[in-house]
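A student in our group prepared the protein record below, which I am reviewing. This is what I was given:
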Amino acid sequence: MQKSSTFSNLRRRLAPLIRPLLEHFPPLRFLAVSILKIKQRGSMERCGLQFELPSGDFGVTLEAESTGEYEPVTTHIMQSILKEGMTFVDIGAHVGLFTLPATKWVGEAGRVVAFEPHPDNFAMLSRNAKVNNLHPKLVNAAVSNNAGSVQLHASMFNSGDHQIYHSASRKSIEVSCVKLDEYFSSEDRIDLIKMDVQGAESAAFHGMERLLQNNTSLKVIWELSPAQLNDAGADAVSLLGWLASLGYSFTIIDDVTGDVEPASAEDVLRRCPFHSYVNILSERNE
């Protein structure tokens, strides 16, 4: 845990400085990615499962292979919530680091639905599910407040940073997009949602308003990044206020310090500066 915390702390501090350099200077990006491709194994064991990981990756793979873990506090909280027979939805599933353990935890009586829009990530997610003999419902699509198709702007150095909202010059691909209030019926019970969609959180939340209101025991673990929300035309203050108006509370999950603390919207904003990010557990107030 100490190794993971130290790495995560450095990553949180340095990412806002390093990301623009890799984004805007192709020769530097090419050199850095080439070095990582040589050094990274592209695999890890997690929660008793085997995972293939993207190589040359400054995101999930770098953290996982550097520490041997990935978001350990968030993982522990998810495992404590999910019980046999529950339904879990993973939005921005990447290669399955949460999807597949959740599938094991909810068992055959449970249900897991995972959304991942990027074709390379989705292919690796599918292979990881097959290797571990697990059978979640895998959906090759983004999640937003409108269904149809969107442009996904792909990162060249972080496989977990593909975005449907992006202002820089990235290559984009057209991907399918779903609205959760249309994908799930009004009878569907959902127990836990995990969401990490690189700035599209506000749009995704607004596209699941009925689910948020109807599922009174629903819990949502989501990543707040004020800067990325701003890039998407949203803002953290408005999103936190909207969720609070629906009766949802906020608990900060800090995978750097290990702290899990209930917080007001103001506390969340204070603990998560504009260019930082943090995981939040939101659930309906008693």
Q: What stands out?
A: The first helix runs from residue 2 to 24. The chain has a mean pLDDT of 92.
